[in-house]
Each structure stands twice: as C-alpha cells, then as structure tokens.
Design goal:
single chain, 332 residues, alpha/beta, TIM Barrel, eight-stranded parallel β-barrel, two-stranded antiparallel sheet
Length: 332
C-alpha cells in the first residue's frame, strides 16, 4: 500500500483509508465477525488510517472499531474521530468538546486519538448546526489545543463542509492540521475551476489553500454517498441515500449524472463506475488518504483492487471533463 506524507504532520498515511461511517454501515450495523475480518484484511494490505465519529450510529462505530483494534493490537494504526457540537452547546464549546472526546476515547479504548476533527459545517456567520469562522477560530481551536496539550489528541482537523469562503479562511489560518475535503467525479472543484453554471458547490480550488497551509487532506464523499456506483440498490445494512454534500441538491440527481459517466467504462478506462470514482480521487497530488465507505468485506476488496490500479490516466481525466461539460446549465 502506497503511503503519502500527510501535510505538515509528519504522518505517512495509506492512500486508502478505512471509513467507519454510517453510509456503508459495516462498522455500525455489520456482523462483528465481518468487522474484524475486514479490518484485519485492511491492516494486512497496509491500510493504517481508520476514520470514525461519535455520530456514526450514536457511538456504535467507535465501540466496534475500539473492540476490533483492542483484539488485533496493530502497531501502526492511526485513528481519527470527530466532534459535532449541538446548537445548545455553543455557550460552552470548550466543555462540550472535552466531554465529547472523553466519550470517544472510552468507546475506542484509547488514551488519545491521532486526529480530532470538527464535524460541524463552517459558515461565515454560523446558524443552526453550522459554526461561524469566529466560533471555530476563537473557541474550537483553543479547546482543541488544550486537549492536545493534555496529550489526548495529536492533530487538529475539520470536516471542510459549509461556505467555501469560510472554509478557505479557516484553512488559511493554519490552525488545523487536517481537512476532510469533498472531492469526486461529480464535483472536482477542490482542485479545478468548474464550468459556468455547473450544478454543484464551487469549493474554489480548496486544495490550493490546503497545500499552502501544509494541511493534510482526507478525501471524503469519493463515491458521492453511493451515487457514483450508478446503482439505486443499497445493501440492507447501508443507510438510506444520504443527503448530498457539495454536488446536487438530491441524491437522485447525483445518481442521474453519475450514470451519464458510463462512457468511461464502455471505453475501457475502468471496469466499473465505483472503480473509476475511487481512482479519480487518487489522481490529485494533494490527496493524503481517501475514505471509501463499505457495507461488506467484498466492498473493501473492491476498493483495494481499485487503489492498486493507481490513479486514472490523463486520457480518462480528459474524457471525464468532457462528459461533465454536459451538466452545465442544469438545475442543481
């Protein structure tokens, strides 16, 4: 498994990370034996980054990951988890962050986590579940730093969803070591300019900002929540179609556009849309590690096989760009 330097952290992360989220569902609703078998296989293949969150199954993902890691005792596992602050906790952000981490550590069976990500959206002014830039820099960062000084976290991170201007501003401050960035075949705007009137959020070449700040990048929504499989079918333990992030306003619209990328398969660039999407996410040098959710051990094997084929060739990227041009002008 290829390892990538992860920003300025000094970490070297496997290019394929192990996503423990609720969309695929393996680490939330899966069979315990399948969970252990798949993590053991991932470790044997060289995967060293495991990404979870308290929101994934209300702590079940953390419980299950902790149980398996305790049994397998890998020497080099890098674990990331997250805190999502509810609106009623914004008056005491420091206490809420600390309490969330304590719960996560207990479920994971760890004394510290390697990367602790803020899970809330970030907007310029904040409202509802979104935090403002000022709240993030003025309250969240000091709370995270206290936990780092206490030895309970190694590195600070954000999930880079919300307003593009706000995300750029926060990353430019260099307060966070890691950013989880939306990047997929339906929305490549973290890396390149979108065509005019393109139906997706424009992330304004966010990779330029992470590179300048020395921020490590975790690629998320690589499969657009499953839409980039091109199939409506979902495994029984997978979540219902998730709310799209950064792409269309509905999952059905994402699925409709994903199916219009099938020429990539027909023309021999990849064996499936899922493979193409996985390899596309590897194609940008800013990417530290990518997360692919899974419902079954076989889906992990599929992701591993795709990664082992390497990034998509330049000809495939050019063909993909041409196909995406047809999306311009459509309603998001």
């Amino acid at each position: 498994m290829q390892l990538h330097a992860f920003g300025r952290t000094g970490l070297k992360l496997s290019v394929l990370g192990f996503g423990c989220g609720a969309v695929g569902g393996l680490m939330v609703r899966g069979d315990p034996a399948d969970q252990e078998r798949t993590i053991a296989r991932a470790l044997a293949a060289g995967v060293n980054y495991f990404d979870t969150a308290v929101q994934y199954g209300n702590g079940e993902s953390e419980n299950n990951l902790g149980r398996v890691l305790k049994k397998l005792r890998p020497a080099n596992a890098v674990v990331g988890t997250k805190v999502r602050l509810p609106p009623d906790a914004l008056g005491s952000i420091g206490d809420a962050v600390a309490a969330s981490l304590e719960g996560s550590l207990a479920r994971l069976g760890l004394d510290r986590v390697d990367i602790f990500h803020l899970h809330n959206p970030i907007t310029v002014s904040g409202s509802g579940s979104a935090l403002s830039v000022q709240q993030v820099l003025g309250d969240v960062v000091p709370a995270f730093e206290r936990l780092r000084q206490e030895g309970k976290i190694r590195f600070l991170g954000i999930t880079a969803v919300g307003d593009t201007a706000a995300l750029q501003q926060v990353i430019d401050q260099r307060a966070f070591d890691s950013a989880q960035v939306v990047y997929n075949m339906l929305n490549p705007s973290a890396a390149e300019a979108l065509p005019n009137n393109y139906p997706a959020q424009d992330y304004g070449r966010l990779f330029d900002h992470t590179e300048k700040a020395g921020t490590g990048v975790v690629g998320i929504r690589v499969l657009a929540g499953g839409a980039l499989s091109g199939s409506e079918a979902r495994h029984p333990i997978a979540s219902p179609p998730p709310e799209p992030i950064g792409s269309a306003m509905s999952y059905d619209a994402d699925l409709f556009r994903a199916r219009r990328l099938v020429p990539l398969i027909e023309e021999g660039f990849a064996s499936s849309l899922t493979e193409a999407a996985t390899r596309f996410a590897l194609s940008h040098p800013a990417m530290g590690t990518i997360l692919v959710g899974m419902a079954t051990p076989q889906q992990f094997e599929d992701a591993l096989a795709a990664v082992e084929k390497g990034p998509l060739p330049e000809a495939a990227l050019e063909r993909l760009s041409t196909l995406r041009q047809t999306f311009s002008g459509e309603a998001r």
